Amino acid sequence: MRVTNNMNAYNSLTSVQSGMNTFYKINQQLNSGYQISNSYEGANTYIDSARLEYEIQTLEQVEKAASMASEMMKNTDSALEQMVSLISQFQVKVTQAVNATQSQTSREAIAKELTRIKEEIVNLANTSVNGQYLFSGSLTNTKPFDIYGNYFGNQEDLNIVTGDRTTNSYNIPGYDLFFKPDNDFYKQITTNVSFTDNRYNLVDNPDKTRYLTASDSFKNLVGLNYFEDNAWLDPKKHFEDEPLDLPPTVLYVQGKRPDGTSFKSSVLVEPDDTLQSMFDKIGAVYGNTSTNKVVDISINESGQIQIKDLKQGNNSLDFHAVAFTPQFESEEQYHDVLESLENQGNTLEDLTNAIMQEALNASGGDITNLNPPVTVGIDGVNYEFGLSSTEFISGNMTDTDGNQINGADYDNVFFERDGNKVYGNVSQIIQASGEYASESTKLSEVSGTSLENTVLNLTVNSKGGNTYEVSVDLGNSTVSYTNAAGQVVSFPIMQTDPLTGNSGIVTPSNEISYKQLNDIIGLFASDQVPTTSINAVNNQINAADYQTYQTALQDSKSTVEVNLDYKGRITVTDRLSTGTNIGVAIHDSNSTQFAQPPFSTTANVTEGASLSFNANNALIIDEPHVDFIKDLDNMIEAVSKGYIRADANSEDPRNTGMQGALARLDHLGEHLRKQRTIIGADAAAVEKTADRATMLKLNVKEIRSGVIDIDLAAVLTNMMQTQINYQAALKATSTMSQLSLLNYM
Q1: Which of 430, 641, 677, 701 is least crowded, fewest Cβ atoms below 10 Å from its Cβ?
Q2: With contact defined as beta carbons under 8 Å apart, do 568 and 179 qualify?
Q3: What is the pLDDT of residue 46?
Q4: CA dist 518 → 287, 328, 344, 477, 507 (Å)
Q5: What is the DSSP letter of 537?
Q6: What is the 3-state secondary structure (H, E, C) of 644-656?
Q7: 658 — pLDDT class (breaks 50, 70, 90)
Q8: Residues 6 or more apart from 525 whose CB is under 8 A from it?
Q9: Residue 621: strand, helix, or coil
Q10: H or E element: which one contains 731?
Q11: What are the pLDDT digits (tens) for 401-451?
Q12: pLDDT value at position 554?
């Protein structure tokens, strides 16, 4: 190979340019501190560096979000701390008010203090920081509560991203704060009629008032009411020393067991049975056995029955009872009847059964409409007997006949009225979950049983002043009523046919929803009822009839709104009035019908009402669900009005009084402390997340540094070596450019 000047020049230039490029690259590394500046300089290095840079930025976002969340949680914790303190003050004030030495004036003053405390709690619940409300859920720009405790936020959590597909909440929604159920609490209910020793005339001798205990005999409860003319009775002689032979009492009980199943029971209670014996019989109906109790039944110091569900979190327990005792006209009749019974070979148990049979025959089996006196023939002689009613629960409600309720009335009562609303007092609770029902909930989900044999009696006093007696046959999915002309108008409970979109199909009985029931109530309350029958053919409703029905529904909603409120109660709102004349009552057609005589001391138990919407039932002392502000309002009313315990004779018979308030306050205080514990745990988790993010960020930065950063010593060494090589290349190039044959001639 011949080496020419051109080749020498080319090689020299290449060496110089290579040195320059290497030197330039080293200068770039020194200036940037990175091994590469462009992806093409090292693909693997670039990819690893980019991935690690993304992780660093993510961790920095986590740090920033955690700092923001931590600040919000500190403010939330501070607000909750003050609420816990305020509810403790509230409890102290109620304890002061229940003291017998307090005058009505002092109680009213305490009630004003309690009102201020409640308002402070509401103000704290409306706390906002930097324009964001702490307790509005995710609707942080919406003020969560009004002074009445109505909630306008949502139930959503605010979350920060703590990692790949992981989040952590950092707020307490207002729903959780004031409404979320506590499943570690028990439901407790109470009657509001106090059992007293009725062997004495307490009207004339109020000093003889004594509340009964579990060891008292049932005859002490009936007392003078065994006789219409009872002036001759001596409390000690005729009930203790020389006790009279007295007839047994028929006790009717109905309600719901802890498992949500309903029942009705009828049983005889003997005069000498103790109240504890009666409680045991009632407990057995609820499911108590000799080895296992599901409810605890007791009597408080005011002679009222209290029932406690022994399983935490249950919310179905319900109770109603009434007792009927044959009443003699006089002492003379009493002795004549005993003689006639003996002659005929009958017992006092037979007498009670005969009297109840006659009374029920006259009322059509309806225990709410027994109308004594009752005539019974014994040994060829007709005797007239009264019926003494022993009430367990009473109130200010109106029954479906328009009369003040009696102790036998259970759910055949009109909804309560409040301004332009009427509402049922029974929350619709889904048996499987214990949650409140919603519009989409099926009636069968609440009843827990098939509705194939269920008929609801619906009475509506409409906005237009009309009264409708409606039969809602759930089993046949049919609604019917009698119009003013005496004609029966009926229509099916229907829904849109998904195949056509403009016609209807009959809804199966166990698929009927609360929305459909509410729509039916709305039709009658607004006077928008179908005036001619709508007939289904093969479970199909033609398009014309279906559109007629839908038009009626839309027209009804312009004046009357029917829905389930936040506590699952049916609520009817008159949209065009601040007050309303609308009245609604709805109950199972069989709720007033019990097993027929003869009765015995063994309970005759049958299935109870499938559904209940409004009832003269036991009052709730405590339950897993809370309604914080409205609970406080009821307590303030109890203090202001001087209600010590529930009282059937008070202005508000369904208020559990100050004693009930103290039991409920224990729960409310614990509820707030639980929410504070939750936010504290979340705060600790967020703080740990922030610490972890900081540590990980440092680690990732170190790893990235190892991937992308230069080794300064190595680069400087390389630079010096490159500089030497570059200078050598320049020297060699210069030398070769001076070579000539003339130098060797």
Answers
A1: 677
A2: no
A3: 64
A4: 34, 48, 56, 14, 15
A5: B
A6: CCCCCCCCCCCCC
A7: very high
A8: 460, 462, 463, 556, 560, 562, 572, 582, 584
A9: strand
A10: helix 712-738
A11: 889 999 999 999 999 999 999 999 999 999 988 899 999 999 999 998 889
A12: 96
**In contact, 51 and 148? CB cutoff 8 Å:** no
347-361, 374-388, 636-650, 705-719: lowest mean pLDDT where? 705-719
Q: Under 8 Å CB-to-CB from 47, ≥6 apart: which residues?
A: none
Residue type at position 411: D
Single-letter residue type at 703: I
Query: Which is higher by pLDDT, 8 or 345?
Result: 345
Tokens at residue 209, please?
A: 């008032």
Angle at 457 between CA 451 and CA 458, to 5 degrees: 115
pLDDT in tens, 609-653: 999 999 999 999 999 999 999 999 999 999 999 999 999 999 999
Tokens representing 225 are: 């009411």
In which residue are the tokens 């109603």 written? 320
Mean pLDDT of 155-162: 88
- Taking the C-alpha atoms of residue 251 and residue 602, their distance in angstroms, rounded to an integer, is 11
In whole angstroms, what is the distance from residue 657 CA to residue 638 CA?
5
Average pLDDT, the chain: 90
DSSP letters of 126-179? T-EETTEETTSTT-TTS--B-TT--B-S-SPPPEEEEETTEEEE----HHHHHT
Non-local (6+) Cβ contacts of 552 within 8 A are 523, 528, 529, 530
Backbone angles phi and psi of 575, in degrees to 5? -75, -15
* More confident position, 698 or 200: 200
pLDDT at res. 23: 57
**First and final C-alpha spacing in the chain:** 24
Domains identified in the chain and CATH numbers:
52-179+668-696 (1.20.1330.10), 188-396+595-625 (no CATH), 416-588 (no CATH)
Q: How confident is the model at residue 1 (pLDDT cuts 50, 70, 90)?
A: very low
**Residue 706 structure tokens:** 């190892």
Give 696's contacts (C-beta < 8 A, 6+ positions apart). 55, 59
Rg (CA), the chain: 41
Please give the DSSP secondary-structure letter assigned to residue 156: P
pLDDT surpassing 60 at residue 740 = no
* Stretch (H or E) spanning 635: helix 628-641
What is the pLDDT confidence band of residue 128, given thresholds at 50, 70 and 90?
A: very high
Q: Name 16's Cβ contacts closer than 8 Å, sequence gap at least 6.
A: 726, 729, 730, 733
How far apart (Å, rounded) are the C-alpha atoms in residues 472 and 469?
10
Q: Decide: helix, strand or coil at residue 541.
A: strand
Q: What is the pTM of this model?
A: 0.87
Report d(CA 336, CA 382) in Å as an integer: 11
Which is it for the CA torsion 325, 331, 337, 339, positive or negative? Answer: positive
Residue recorded with tokens 């408080």: 300
- φ and ψ at residue 521, rounded to 5 degrees: -60, -45
> Which runs of consecutive H residues, i.e. helices, occur in 126-233?
174-178, 218-222
Task: Mention every residue, 6+ apart, whose C-beta is less than 8 A from residue 145.
Answer: 122, 125, 126, 135, 151, 152, 174, 178, 629
Judge whether residue 493 has pLDDT over 70.
Answer: yes
- The CA dihedral of 214, 216, 218, 223, to the nearest 10 degrees, is -140
In the predicted structure, residue 64 carries a pLDDT above the cut 90? no
Please, are residues 611 and 454 in contact by the beta-carbon 8 Å criterion?
yes
Q: How many CB atoms lie within 10 A of CB 555?
A: 15
Residue given tokens 């170190």 in the structure block: 702
Report the pLDDT value the prediction gives residue 367, as an integer from 0 to 100: 95
